[in-house]
Amino acid sequence: MKNWQEFEMGAVLFPFEKQGQEELGKHNNERAYTTDSSFTASVANWRVEKPVHNKDVCINCFNCWVYCPDASILSREGKMSGIDYEHCKGCGVCVDVCPTNPKSLLMFDNLEPVEEALTKWPQKAEGLKKKSYRTEGGYNGF
Ligand code: SF4
Ligand code: SF4
């Protein structure tokens, strides 16, 4: 694989060895990724904070799945099932777009055990005005 300075501007790296639609129907650990994809060239070592998922608050809207730039939101049987920490770079976009109150994803120090993070979850904040997703980015809370 070329290093990044050698790519032509606007170059596209195809993530799958086979047809993308065929591969997208499979779980992430079963797909035939190319060696040039971010699946094999993980940037998880950039992470200083990690998102933690609280399934007790999650409404399975999959906003986080749509917006995650590294396809690190995992799902099983139609529900969000957690974070792929082998690939998550800790950008926090998933937390920003989560619409619940309190949020179902929150950032914690990368070294914080998930079980401990879950014991520190905030309560529902009262008096938050619900905003439009399209114009104002969801809840302006937490
Ligand atoms: S922190 Fe960023 S990379 Fe990690 S799961 Fe959330 S959106 Fe994806
Ligand atoms: S955006 Fe929040 S509520 Fe929606 S699936 Fe993700 S964690 Fe759950």
TrEMBL record:
<keyword id="KW-0677">Repeat</keyword>
<keyword id="KW-0408">Iron</keyword>
<dbReference type="InterPro" id="IPR011898">
    <property type="entry name" value="PorD_KorD"/>
</dbReference>
<protein>
    <submittedName>
        <fullName>Pyruvate:ferredoxin oxidoreductase, delta subunit</fullName>
        <ecNumber>1.2.7.1</ecNumber>
    </submittedName>
</protein>
<feature type="domain" description="4Fe-4S ferredoxin-type">
    <location>
        <begin position="78"/>
        <end position="108"/>
    </location>
</feature>
<keyword id="KW-0670">Pyruvate</keyword>
<keyword id="KW-0560">Oxidoreductase</keyword>
<keyword id="KW-0479">Metal-binding</keyword>
<dbReference type="GO" id="GO:0051539">
    <property type="term" value="F:4 iron, 4 sulfur cluster binding"/>
</dbReference>
<keyword id="KW-0411">Iron-sulfur</keyword>
<dbReference type="InterPro" id="IPR017900">
    <property type="entry name" value="4Fe4S_Fe_S_CS"/>
</dbReference>
<dbReference type="Pfam" id="PF14697">
    <property type="entry name" value="Fer4_21"/>
</dbReference>
<dbReference type="GO" id="GO:0019164">
    <property type="term" value="F:pyruvate synthase activity"/>
</dbReference>
<feature type="domain" description="4Fe-4S ferredoxin-type">
    <location>
        <begin position="49"/>
        <end position="77"/>
    </location>
</feature>
<dbReference type="GO" id="GO:0046872">
    <property type="term" value="F:metal ion binding"/>
</dbReference>
<keyword id="KW-0004">4Fe-4S</keyword>
<dbReference type="InterPro" id="IPR017896">
    <property type="entry name" value="4Fe4S_Fe-S-bd"/>
</dbReference>
